Amino acid sequence: MAKEHIEKDIIIIGAGMAGLTAALYAGRMNLRTLVLENSLVGGQIATAADIENFPGFERVSGMELIGTLEKQAMNFGAEIDEFDRIERVDLKSTPKIVETETRVYETPVII
Length: 111
Ligand SMILES: Cc1cc2nc3c(=O)[nH]c(=O)nc-3n(C[C@H](O)[C@H](O)[C@H](O)COP(=O)(O)OP(=O)(O)OC[C@H]3O[C@@H](n4cnc5c(N)ncnc54)[C@H](O)[C@@H]3O)c2cc1C
What we know:
By secondary structure, the protein is an alpha/beta fold. It has helices spanning about 15-30, 60-75; strands at about 5, 10-15, 35, 80, 85-90, 95-100, 105.
């Protein structure tokens, strides 16, 4: 069966601190934003018990920090898709292509 083609303004690969922060800003700019994560949302920071150097927090767990950031990004309209493995990325085509197991995404911007 042919894969569904979907257009996005920006695709972010990886839903760790960096990816979700990018998604928060892109979503806030009203860009159609998709974050693709091949595992669980969170990245490395999700395994940190106590973070003491994040501005604005004396101490916060990684799970709490990433949960808040995920919600913030989604509140600004970013979509987060876990476990749809990326099979191919074409950075040379216009638009750029990200092909996953189930879909083909077209986008001008990939982070
Ligand atoms: C135990 C521990 C404690 C830590 N404590 C602190 C601390 O107290 N203070 C501090 O400043 N830093 C700390 N760090 C470091 C901090 O966690 C990292 O610097 C930070 O999480 C990096 O975020 P990132 O988004 O750049 O990368 P990552 O967290 O590595 O996220 C990358 C994401 O991309 C996903 N990904 C990778 N390849 C693909 C692919 N092909 N397709 C889809 N998704 C993909 C991964 O699954 C992952 O979710 C700690 C790290 C650990 C492990």
